[in-house]
Structure formats: C-alpha cells, structure tokens
Design a protein that fits this description.
This protein has a 4-stranded mixed sheet. Strands 2-3-7-6 form a 4-stranded antiparallel sheet, with no helix packed on it. Helices cover 44% and strands 13% of the residues. Strand 6 and strand 7 form a beta hairpin. It has 404 residues and is α+β, with helices and mostly antiparallel strands. It folds into 3 domains: 95 residues, Butyryl-Coa Dehydrogenase, subunit A, domain 1 (Orthogonal Bundle); 114 residues, Butyryl-CoA Dehydrogenase, subunit A, domain 2 (Beta Barrel), CATH 2.40.110; 139 residues, Butyryl-CoA Dehydrogenase, subunit A, domain 3 (Up-down Bundle), CATH 1.20.140.10.
C-alpha cells in the first residue's frame, strides 16, 4: 500500500486546495453551530439574500471547473475525474469544510438519469442540477417500508397519460428545501414485491403533495413525512421501464464512495477538542479526572486512522475496477459508530458542562458542539442501512456465514 500522492495526484491536490482557498465564500469559512439549519441546499432557499447569494456564488465557482458533479462524465457536464482524483477532491473539500453543491441531484438522481433516462429527461434535468437551479429529495422509505424497502405500498395507478399516486413517504430528507422529488411507487400490486415498482420524478409543488417537516431530538428538521393524495404525474416522468423501478432505483455510477469525508471530519474534531482543552478558556470546563478521558480520546484518534484506511481500501478497490461489497458495509458500520463514540467522548471531557445545550451561553464549552453532535449522531447508525443490516452483510458476504 502506497499512501503518498503521485506527482500528478499531488499537483491535482494543490489545484483543488488553491481553488478552495481562493473561491470559497467567506460565510462558508467560519461554520459554527447554531439553532438555524444550514448548508447549501438550505441557503439557496433562505429568506436572507446574503445566504442565497453565497450559495449561488459557490455553485457557480464549482460549475466553472465541472466540480459540482466531479464524478459525472464530461459529456453530461461533469469533470470526469478518476476514482483517485475524486478521493483527493472529497478529502480536500472535507478538510476545508467546504459544502458540496447539488445534494441528491448530483449523487443519486443525476447518475440514475445518465444510465436510464431518456434524452428529453437528461436535457430537462441534468443542466438544472449542475447549475444549482433545482435541488432534489428522495421518496423511498415509508412508515412500513424502511430496511425492507421493497415492501413499499405507495400506489401509482395508470390513468391515460398520467399516473395517479396515493400514499405516504417518510424520512424524506431535505424535502422542504427541494424543488423536485424522485420516488419509488408500486404500479403492479399483484407482482412480486421487487418487480411491481416503478421509478418516477415529479415537481414537488404538484397538487396533492404535502410535505410536513419532522422535528428530531436535536430540535432540527432534517427530514419530513410526505403525503400523496391523487397526485397526477405524467407517464413521461417515469424513468426506465414500468415495474422495473427497483433496478433503476438501485443504479449508481461507479464513482468514489469511500467515506473519506467522515474520516477527515472526525480527525479535525479531535484536533479542535485537544487544542481547546489546552487553552485557558477551555481548561476551566475540563472535568478533574480528564486523564481517563484523554485515553479515550487517544483511542478515538487511532480509530479515525482505521477509518481512513477503510476508505483508502475502498478507493483502491475501485481504482482497480472492482466493486466494493462487504468492504463498504464495514466502512459504514465503523464510521457511523465511531461518530457516536467520538461525540460521547467529547461530552465526557466536559462533565456536567456537557448538559448545556444553548450554544450562545458562555458556560457552554466549544459552543455545546459535542453535546449537540452526540444527539444528532443517533440516526447515523440507522440511515443508509442500519448497523444491524451492515453486520448481516459482513457476516454473509464477507465471512461466508450461513443465513440464520
């Protein structure tokens, strides 16, 4: 294993780093914790003109380089970066805490349209994703169909040139800030559950769609429940064949999904915490028995290096034309549980001061950063495949154990 950059990779890393230093808008350089939702997809819909202008400026800057969608082929407006170049790009973006642009439009629906979309669908949607004009949300999970997604029951009944959709989705992340929604719907209730599903896209302002934000335990609204009541969606908005939507929805181009951003972020969090406890302001919050916590913090730092190497292993497999399987599950499992352990270690560093939630009070160490992160880390072992599912994948596909 060679961890060092080649000459070309070092030059590309320097290019990305220089670009971020010169073009990243100032408001994105000093991201702090607050009670206000933030991020590019939120900022583009903000009532604050300055936040909207910041989001537009950053999207335009990335678009100049094709870096809104660095993994997309050049013929569709992406940068066509190699797997290792994507790894470097994501690492530098994470190091600078620079927000990505495009969200699910870039990572999910764009690649799906590139593979399965008609020419008209590509022409209509891909340019608007790249420009940041349109943001997307995903309508997959339902109250009775989460991990067992193929059990979804939202119905789409054919009515001439339209589908009429009725049902409910849940955990629809960012839907309140999205313009369009892509969803899996059941078009043949008599077919085996994986086969009677179709993939459709729709304007989220279509009559009959109701988006209702859900408040989580951290008093934020990252996701929603979405209701469909006699929603008419043109059949031309179906992507791929009717009743073959499950296979369309599982499509992803072969681009870098190593999770390097998480490893970079957690290492930076540890450095921030260590630097803070060595300051006069931070030292007064540290619990008297910090020596024990310091050992736990050292463990977390070692674990971030383990996570980095998980990420490097995945990108190395992809660079050789291989498709990671159980390796990706091991990475996701370790990373999400490390996130929770790190946040808990951070709160234990400050003892009873970690009970303070208000980031603005002078009595909150690091603006209650780790307290809030601990609460918000809870879903990380659930979304994108729960830890239980990841362990099953590792057991059966990685270790060859029999199914129970």
């Amino acid at each position: 294993m060679d961890w060092s950059d080649s000459t070309d990779q070092a030059a590309f890393r320097a290019e990305v780093r220089g670009f971020i230093q010169s073009r990243l808008p100032e408001p994105y350089r000093a991201v702090g914790d607050s009670d206000e939702a933030s991020g590019w997809q939120v900022d583009r819909k903000s009532k604050d003109p300055a936040r909207r202008e910041t989001a537009i400026a950053w999207a335009n800057a990335l678009a100049e380089k094709g870096w809104v969608a660095p993994h997309w082929p050049k013929e569709y407006g992406g940068a066509g970066l190699s797997v290792l170049e994507q790894f470097i790009f994501n690492q530098e973006m994470a190091t600078a805490e620079a927000p990505s642009v495009g969200g699910m439009g870039v990572s999910l629906i764009g690649p799906t349209l590139i593979v399965h979309g008609t020419d008209e669908q590509k022409q209509e949607h891909l340019p608007k994703i790249l420009s940041g004009e349109v943001a997307w949300a995903q309508g997959y999970s339902e109250p009775g169909a989460g991990s067992d997604l193929a059990s979804l029951q939202t119905r789409a009944t054919r009515d001439g040139d339209d589908y009429v959709i009725n049902g409910q989705k849940i955990w629809t992340s960012g839907a309140q800030f999205a313009d369009w929604l892509f969803a899996l719907v059941r078009t043949d209730p008599e077919a085996p559950k994986h086969r009677g599903i179709s993939f459709v896209v729709m304007d989220i302002t279509t009559p009959g769609i109701t988006v209702r934000p859900l408040t989580d335990m951290g008093w934020q609204q990252p996701f929603n429940e979405t209701f469909f009541e006699d929603v008419h969606v043109p059949v031309r908005n179906r992507v791929g064949e009717e009743n073959r939507g499950w296979y369309v929805g599982m499509t992803l181009l072969d681009f870098e999904r190593s999770g390097i951003a998480g490893a970079t972020q957690y290492a930076r969090e540890i450095e921030t915490l260590v630097d803070y406890v060595h300051t006069e302001a931070g030292a007064r919050f540290v619990r008297p028995d910090f020596a024990t916590t310091r050992l736990a913090l050292a463990d977390r730092r070692v674990e971030t290096e383990v996570l980095f190497n998980f990420a490097f292993r995945i990108v190395s497999l992809q660079n050789r034309g291989m498709v990671p399987n159980y390796e990706a599950s091991a990475n996701k499992l370790f990373g999400s549980e490390l996130h929770q352990r790190l946040a808990l270690t951070g709160t234990r560093t400050f003892g009873l001061y970690a009970n303070i939630w208000d980031h603005a009070t002078p009595h909150a160490p690091l603006g209650a950063r780790f307290t809030r992160d601990y609460i918000r880390s809870v879903p990380h072992t659930i979304f994108s495949g729960s830890s239980e599912i990841q362990r099953n994948v590792i057991a059966t596909r990685g270790l060859g154990l029999p199914r129970g």
